[in-house]
What does this fold into?
Amino acid sequence: MFEYTLHATDGKARAGTFITPHGAIETPVFMPVGTHSTVKTLTFDQVRQTQAQIVLGNAYHLYLRPGHEMVERAGGLHGWTGWEKPILTDSGGFQVFSLTRLRKITEEGVNFRDPITGQSHFINPEKSMAIQNALGADIIMAFDECPPYPATHEYAKNSMEMTHRWLERCFNAHARKHDQALFPIVQGSTYEDLRFESAAFARQFDAHGFAIGGVSVGESKEWVYKVVEFTAPLLPENKPRYLMGIGTPEDLLDGINLGIDMFDCVNPTRVARHGSFFKMMGRRNIKNAEFENDFGPLDEGCDCYTCNHHHVAYVRHLIKIKEATGATLLSIHNVRFLIRLVEDARKAILAGNFETFYNLHRPRFINPSKEVKPVG
It folds into this structure.
């Protein structure tokens, strides 16, 4: 049911194919995020037009509303949404642990309050598996604790060890091993010894893929890349490697360059709603006066619906008057831009010239983050 084939490598960059029950995924791949079972501002037909191969849903949000039981009655997320391609669900761990003042973590699981209704809830590894089994995604994630940044070595170690115990419980409770691939998540904050230990523990499980979690939670981009550079080679070469919650153009290029296969992020639709769009020469804000009389496409050479049918001045007008269609058109472009970027990266890997591709495009995306030293 699940099979990963590594077709080519170029340096650390990899090109492969991951077979799932709902189709093949060519990697590297960017996964648009459909938090509440929809990619914000887009219909699923519009998502298809971006040539997305897989989308992500959030177990925490879907558990709260409309409820995983309702989604299951509709035929799982595929029946609920009408999306026929692969789907990945995260476990809800990150969302639960971000509710700092509304949750309590114990060895058994996490008690938390719905920030909207105030209702009390409890999720543990077994409940997370039950929720994700009901949602029916092709790829599901283990329930883990995502430590904050900065975290002391002691806190990060204790958190990692509990994540490991929870991982065993997840595999024991996972009821749909035949058609849902459960990915372990490697934790350990910014500490190399902990990342090494966590990767070694995760490799003990007969998993179809592995994830790197606990990054981009407050640390600088420089530290994100340091963690990824150290951790990615510790994961099996013959399984896909997923870097969770990362998805700007520079993130994708740097992640691919470090051996990552799968990415997801809300960034392309989030920044679109605020008027930002991606170009091969870097990110731009369409509200700027320079675009008022621009009757060309958002990005020369882009094949998305927006660039093929509308000019910049028109989309700018829609954004300026807060017309919802403007956010939709920018979201279509931004999602397609990232998908096309990884498609081109894959072609470069297969052709054996990824280093040239990377060195050409990476400098165009400026990383404004500042160096932050880790704790410990």
Remarks:
- Residues 10 and 256 are 10 Å apart (CA to CA).
- The chain has two domains: 3-269, 272-364.
